[in-house]
Amino acid sequence: MASERETTIRQWMLATVSNGGIQRFDDLHVDDIDETWKEPTNWVSAGLIAYGLALRIRRELGLDVTVALGFSLVDAQDTSVDVFETQEEFEKQLDWSPPSLYLFKVGDQQHLSGAIRVDPLPKALFSRLPDNTKSFLVRWLAEDGSQRRSVFVQA
Question: Quick count: other Cβ atoms within 10 Å of Cβ 151?
């Protein structure tokens, strides 16, 4: 029997694939999957759990999409903050927005166009990801001139 988390993710995935959500970059925040994931101290582990569930559901449904998990980071001019040695360092860089699941067309790399580092996650986090998973640190200049940053995890 599917858990509420799985049901929420499955419904979102099916809706996103069928209603143009991929083109709109519709996402699913972890705190919309489970109320207990609202607390920022739960975000990283919640994101990893949600990502694993989404990969399994993609296989079950036979969806031809890339599943990605996005972590929004605080703006930073200094690239020295782009290195995360520990999970704690990474968590300190998260901004106000909970991690989100995304679906992309297979082969679409547009969301990674500003990638400046491959596999930036600390080893302790990276080791908890499924095989064949890559992570990317993405930087871009926002309209207001700030340096925006995100980490995307995808298989």
Answer: 26
Q: Which two tokens stand for residue 30?
A: 């972890």
Q: How far is CA 110 from the centre of its chain?
A: 15
How far apart CA 91 and CA 105 sit, in angstroms, is 29
Stretch (H or E) spanning 29? strand 27-29
Strand spans (E) along the chain = 27-29, 65-73, 100-105, 115-118, 134-141, 147-154
Nearest to 13 by CA among 51, 49, 70: 51
With 0-12 CB in 10 A as exposed, 13-18 as middle and 19+ as buried, what is 148? middle
d(CA 112, CA 117): 10
Q: Which residues form the domain of 35?
A: 4-154
Total domain count, the chain: 1
Sole residue written with tokens 């700030």: 146
- Summarised one tens digit per residue, pLDDT across range 32-81 is 999 999 999 999 999 999 999 999 999 999 999 999 999 999 998 777 67
pTM of the full predicted structure? Answer: 0.93
